[in-house]
Design goal:
By secondary structure, the protein is an alpha/beta fold. Helix content is 46%, strand content 9%. It contains 9 helices and 4 strands; from the N terminus they run αβααβαααβααβα. The protein has a 4-stranded parallel sheet with strand order 2-1-3-4, sandwiched between helices. The relative contact order is 0.19.
Length: 167
């Protein structure tokens, strides 16, 4: 199995016993491309039976656009490998329709899609490093959504995301 396949491998089990997380594009890249150590607990949690990631058409489109950039796909073969990684991610990640905006607005309109998805999916967590999203932490918490960095996720839920699942 290739490193890309291992990074994107695993599968989501029944959503009834899982918590949902929305993973923004930069955290996805930290997991799959940069292999950022701070994102390892998020990757472990998403590979466990305790967590699943949610996605929508808008987040898929953004990720596909980013993976086409020369930095990530300098040649057609690499671009093909990243698009295959994206397809594997999509195959194991439920797609949610987004019909309404979240009750709070992000100052960066490009990041609003992650809030809207979190609301539509009834996600427990939005994982981001984006300051425009992190400043909305209190507003989101009132609606049952935790906006966390990968490190905050590990601090709160443990190295594999299994801690505090009964909250």
């Amino acid at each position: 199995m290739t490193a890309d396949a291992e990074a994107c491998g695993g599968g989501a089990c029944g959503l009834a016993r899982q918590r949902l997380a929305v993973v923004d594009t930069n955290v996805w890249l930290d997991i799959h491309f940069f292999r950022e150590p701070a994102a390892h607990p998020v990757a472990a949690a998403l590979d466990s039976p305790n967590w699943a990631a949610a996605r929508c058409e808008q987040t898929d489109a953004e990720l596909a656009r980013v993976l086409q950039r020369p930095r990530f796909s300098p040649d057609p073969a690499q671009r093909s490998r990243w698009l295959e990684c994206l397809r594997r991610w999509q195959a194991r990640t439920p797609l949610f329709p987004v019909h309404a905006p979240a009750p709070y607005r992000c100052r960066d309109p490009h990041d609003q899609k992650f809030l809207d998805l979190a609301l539509a999916a009834h996600a427990s967590v939005l994982l981001t490093k984006d300051k425009a999203l992190l400043v909305l932490r209190r507003s989101a918490w009132r609606n049952g959504l935790m906006i966390l960095t990968p490190q905050q996720f590990a601090d709160h839920f443990g190295e594999d995301g299994s801690a505090l699942l009964d909250e």
